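FAQ: What does a multi-protein file look like?

Like this. Sequence, then C-alpha cells, then the next protein.
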Amino acid sequence: MIMNAEFEYFRAGQGMPDSQLLGVSGADGFFFFRIQTFHMAEIHRYAPQRTPGSHAHNVFHIVFYTADNDRNRIVLNGAETETLPGTLVMTAPGDSHSFQALMPGKTVYHELTFSLENASDVFCGDWNQLMTYYSGVDDVAIPAVTLLDESGMAALDKHFRHLGNLLKDLSGSMLPVFNDVMSMFEFLYSGVFMKKDLARKVNALDNVKIFIEKHFNEDLNLKDLGYRFFMSPEHLCRKFKDAYGVSPLKYAVELKISTAQNMLLHSEQSIKEISDRLGFSDVYAFSKSFKKNTGIPPGQYRDSGN
C-alpha cells in the first residue's frame, strides 16, 4: 500500500450536510459547497514499480506539504513540479494531477478536497473565479503552486489541525466546520496570496538580499533561492550580481566572514564553535574560507586583535 494517513477524518457520505454558507451563486444557478475528503499527514511513498497516473475530476484541492515532507516531485497539469516543505498546491476542476512521489522518499501533506454542486450541475470554475466570489474582489490571481514561509506554514498547519479536530466528531452544529473552512479561505486570500502579491511589488532582489541576510548561516543554494523567489537560478544570480556587485552565494559567504571576524574579536567562543554557528561543514572548511577572504587564518586574526 503506497498511501496511508496519520489521520483520515472525513470522506463524502459521512452525513455532513451541504453548506449554503459556502455556496456560490453564478449564471448557472446556486452551487452548494460539499466537502469530499479531508486528510491529515497523508503519506505517499515512492514506489519504482508503479508509474503515477495523472487524473482530473470536478473538485477543488488544497494540498499543503508539511515540514515532514521530503523534497520530491509530483505531476501537475502534465508537468513535474517540485514539492518542498511548505509547498501549497491549489487545483481546480479539470486540473490533471498526481500527488504520488516521483523520486525516492515520500510526500507528506494535508489535503482538503471539496466540490460545488447542485441537483443538475457542478461548478467548474477555477480558483480565481471562486476567490472572486468569496472575496468580492475582481481579478484575484491564485497561483497553482506557492511556497510558504515558516510563519505561513505554521498558520496553515494550525488551520488544518483545527478543522480536523472538528471533523472528528460531526455531531451537533455544522457551523463551526463551515466557519473554519471559510477562515482557511480568508487566510489563503489575505495571508498568502494578497501578501505575496504585495511583496512582488517590492524589488524582488531586495527580498532575496534580505532573505540571505537572515539565513546566511544556513545551507543556501541557487536552486532553492530561485524556487523561493520565482526565478531561474541563472537569472537570479545574474540580476543579483548586476544589482549588488556580487553573486548571492558570495554575498552569504561575505556575511559569514564578517560575522566571524566580529565573533573572533569580541567573543570567547572557540573557532570550532564559531564555525558551527556559522554553518560551515567543519573547522577546516571555515579556516580555508576565512583565510581566502581575509588573507590570514582565523586564529592569527584573533591573536592580532585587528
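And here is the next protein:
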Amino acid sequence: MVQLKSIRLRLDKPLTGPYDRLLRRPGPEVAALAAGETMVIIRGTRLLKAMPLWESVAACYYAKGTVGTGWVPGDFSNAQQAEGWAEQGLVNSLAVPVGYFKLPNAAWVGALAAELTPWTAQAVESWRAGIERDIWLTVLRVYRCAPVQPKFLRRGMGQQLVRSFEVEQLQPVVLESELEQRMEQIQEAVERHARGSTRAGASYDIQTLAAETGYSAAQLKGWVAQLRRKQQLILYGPPGTGKTYLAERLARYLVDGGGFSQLVQFHASYTYEDFVEGIRPQVVEGALHYELAAGHFLRFCNKARHAGEKPCVLIIDEINRANLARVFGELMYLLEYRHRPIALAGGGSEFSIPANVYLIGTMNTADRSIALVDQAMRRRFSFVRLRPNYPLLANHLENRGVPPEKLVALLKEVNQTIGDEDCELGLSFFLVADIATALAHVWQGEVEPYLEEVFFDRPDQMARFRWSKVAGRLQDWVCDATS
C-alpha cells in the first residue's frame, strides 16, 4: 500500500535557507495554496524545503549551484525585481512540505491532479503529454509570513548574491484539525489510485465491483439504483461486515469517468461547525480575529459545483457516532428539498446542495443501534443492511489454498449463538493473506475480546468459543493450510 512519506522539519522564526521555485510558470495552484484551498502540488522533482509563494514569475527565487546563498538575475524577466520584491508584497506566504508521494505515470498525474488540485483539464492534459519519467506529489502546509528584505552580499560579473530568504511572524493558514483531515483525504485518494489505476483508462464496471466486494452484480445494481434515486444511502450492520470497504467501492463505481469522492469520519465531538460552517479564530498580525469558515460539507459542495453534472460522493464513516440532528442542522431540510436554497445559521448568501452530490454513510449497529437515529433523519436516507458474507470468506480462503468449510461452519455457529443481527461477528477479521498461520492470534487478540462483550451475560457461551476450545475443531484445517 502506498504510504505518505513524512518529512521532519523544524520551523524557526525567522526561518532561513535556500528555496526552490515552484514551477517555471506559476499556475492557479499558487493562488489556491496561498488561500488555503488546496494542500498539494505536482512537480517534476521532490520538494524537500520550504518555498515562498509568489504572484509573478519575476518574483521566483531559487538557489543557484551548490552553494545555495543567492539567486541569479538572469532568471528574472526584470533583474530589478530582485531588489524590491518585499516592498511590492509579491511574497507573503510560505509553503512548507510535510510529505510527498511518488507518482509512477501520467495516468496517475491526470487523475490525482483533477481530484486534488484546482488545475483545469486542459492544463493537466497539456502537461501530461510531456511526462517521460516519475514525478512527485508534494503535500504542503502554508503559513502567512512577513518577508525580510534580502541584503546584497556581492554584485558583479552579471550576478548578484543576496542573503537567504527569511520570514517572520509565521501564521498557519489552515487549522491543525483541518490539516490532519485533509492529510487523511490525500492519503486515501493516493491509495485509491494505487489500487485501481494499474492501467490507463481502466473502467471500474459492475463486474469489477462484484469481483472486489463478493456481492452479485444484480444485488449491487439494486444498491446503486437506491443511491441514485435517493442520493443518500446508509450501509449498516455489525463490525467487520465491510461497510466502509463497500462504501468506497460504490463511490468509485459511481464517479467512474468523472467526478470525485471524499471520506469524512464522524465522532462524538464532531459538530455543526466542523461539518457545515462556524466561527473560527485566526491570528492576524498578532491579533486574534474570528471569521466565518466553511466546514467539510460546504467545501465539498463548492468543489462539486465545478464538476458539472458528474457525480461527487461524500462517504461519512461511522455516521451515527455524532449527534446527527446537531451536526446536520439546516441540512436536514436541504437533503430532502435540494432545489430550495435557504440561509444557513451563520448568515451570508443562501445555500443549496448541488444535484450531483451523493452521500454514503456507514453505521455500526453493535454498539449504537439504528433505533437511536431519529425518524426525521432516517426518512432522508435509504438503508442497506450488511450481514456476514460467507461466500466472500470462502472464496478468499480457496484462493489461498485453504479449505473453507470448517471455519465457515464455526462462524455460522457463533453468529447463530449470538442470535442478534446487530451484533453478529463480522468476517473481515479473517480476510488476511496469512490467515492459516495467523488464525490463533486473530482469534485470541481480536475475536475473543469482541465476543466477551457480546456474551458478557452468558459466560457459558463465551467458554464454548475460547481458542482453547475451537482450536481442536480447526487443527486439521490449519495443518492442511500450512503443510
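Q: Is there any per-entry metadata?
A: Some entries carry free-text notes. For the entry above: The chain is about 35% helix and 20% strand.
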